Amino acid sequence: MRKSIHSLKRLFSYLNPYKFTFIIVLILTVIALVLGTLSPYLSGLPTTEIAKNISEGESVNFDYIFRIIVWIIVVGLIYSGTQLGSNWLMANIVQSAMRDLREEIEEKINRLPVSYFDRNQQGNILSRVTNDVDAVSNAMQQATIRSINAVLGIIFGLAMMFYINPTMALISMIMIPASLVISTFIVKISQKDFQEMQNSLGDMNGYVQENMTGFNVLKVYGREKEALQGFNTVNHRLRKYGFRANFVSSIMQPLVQLTAYGTYIAMAVLGSWNVISGVILVGQLQAFIQYIWQVSQPMGEITQLSSMIQGASASAKRVFDILDEPEEIENAHDLPLPEKISGNVVFDHVQFSYDPKKPLIEDLSFEVKAGETVAIVGPTGAGKTTLINLLMRFYDIDSGQILIDGVNSQEMNRSDVRSIFGMVLQDAWLYEGTIADNIRFGRLDATDYEVVDAAKTANVDHFIRTMPGGYEMEINSEGDNVSLGQKQLLTIARAIISDPKILILDEATSSVDTRLEGLIQRAMEKVMQGRTSFVIAHRLSTIRDADLILVMQEGSIIEHGTHESLLAKGGFYEKLYNSQFAED
């Protein structure tokens, strides 16, 4: 409960930049509520006047009644205008605050370490950024003004009730603490279910996103039934907590309304007696009964909003969990990049583990000179990709040091370190945009000529020109309107245009056919000239000309040397090489 209140307080802090507009909203709301509070009193005046005229045997004073009706219409029009103005301004405030929140989330995501995305499902993260922020936005949009209206409506209604008859007002106030006790009890029960409901919704989004991404694989292996069973498990859990949360919170309104009905009956009896006794006028009793509803109706509305507010609280907590995640730690004083990067790399007694209880890389040392090509081979789980992650500072080492041109990379700014590298991954990633834009992603200020030149170097220019629209062809959001091999060549062109000092190729040719492998190899030979290159090789035939081959197993380098020297040793590399060709 305390965490929920803290989340809501933190959420409303996003309204601070718009506090002056919010003050105007409050002023308009107060005006509207004052006028709304006067309406029952004004509507009771004609009743009192007619009762007086009849009791005194006079004709009905239509002039007086007409004037009151005019005032009621004027008050009603001003009331509607102020309500419209406050709602319009509040909508602007909330949407601006949500824009700021989304921008903060996006900036935060860009500062999160890679390890966060390794630990969490992409669909769950996406659900927090979209569904949870939308839930918060809807709640703030609808609940803020309505809650203010409700609270002030109760205050003004009670004030008029005390003005009419303090004794009756005091008795009527019993329904307020009774309603608060009921509301607090039910909110305490349902809040946990609302949190579980939002978590289940995030799990469902993650599950659906994961299965949609691998939909073809599911179809190929006939795993539709298993996927449906997994979905049903998550779906039933969401249904369970969704039902419990909404059902328990829905009990609140009828129970609160029950207190209002009891108060209404009691005041109708007591008020009638007071009219007969001459304590109050009949029109005042009419107005008092209306004020009971003016107090009870906002209380009922607050209970209606409780489920939305609780859902928003749960969503806000999930959003703030992202914002509170530890960021990549930067040094207090970063060492500058060397003025001229040559590309010398040294791993000096490096140790690293994802889990402190399970060491992965222990005492890893090797040296790569500028312009050399280093191939990293080994079985799955040997630590090949981990080595690249450490080199790029996606993860920080536990001990030892990684030197780039003699400077410890751990003492440099991460952005500076990564600006040295160009990367071509096994899973080629393109974003929705033109082919030219995707190549230019490597260096945004690249000219059209440089884009074409990079494409030619990557042996993809011919493919691009055969496409409809050429370089202006739009890559769709899934990136499936170009082949896998063409994607790979485009990512190589992107790496070329960034002009990296050190190049990393992570299984760059493992997913393409032999013809495209040849094109990629020729492209890579061009781009690797004069650059230090790290190649994680799947096909050992592609690394015969490497200056140095590092053979890794269980986080350690067990062999190193050239292709010929390693074959001559007759060790692990020779067995790996021969077994691969035996399989072929």
Automatic annotation (TrEMBL):
**Location within or outside the cell:** Membrane
Record-annotated ABC transmembrane type-1 domain positions:
23-311
**Membrane topology for this entry?**
Multi-pass membrane protein
Name the PROSITE patterns on file.
ABC_TM1F (PS50929), ABC_TRANSPORTER_1 (PS00211), ABC_TRANSPORTER_2 (PS50893)
InterPro entries given in the database record: AAA+_ATPase, ABC1_TM_dom, ABC_transporter-like_ATP-bd, ABC_transporter-like_CS, Type_1_exporter
From which organism does this entry originate? Enterococcus alishanensis
For this protein, the parts annotated as crossing the membrane are: 20-44, 64-82, 147-164, 170-187
List, alphabetically, the CDD domains matched.
Answer: ABC_6TM_Tm288_like, ABCC_Glucan_exporter_like
- Could you tell me what this protein is called? ABC transporter ATP-binding protein/permease
Residue span(s) of domain ABC transporter? 345-579
Query: Does the record carry Transport as a key word?
Result: no
Can you tell which superkingdom this protein's organism belongs to?
Bacteria
Q: Which PANTHER family does the record cross-reference, listed alphabetically? A: ATP-BINDING CASSETTE SUB-FAMILY B MEMBER 10, MITOCHONDRIAL, ATP-DEPENDENT PERMEASE MDL1, MITOCHONDRIAL
* Upper taxonomic lineage: Bacteria, Bacillati, Bacillota, Bacilli, Lactobacillales
Question: Which GO terms of the molecular function aspect are on file?
Answer: ATP binding
**Which keywords does this Swiss-Prot/TrEMBL entry list?**
ATP-binding, Membrane, Nucleotide-binding, Transmembrane, Transmembrane helix
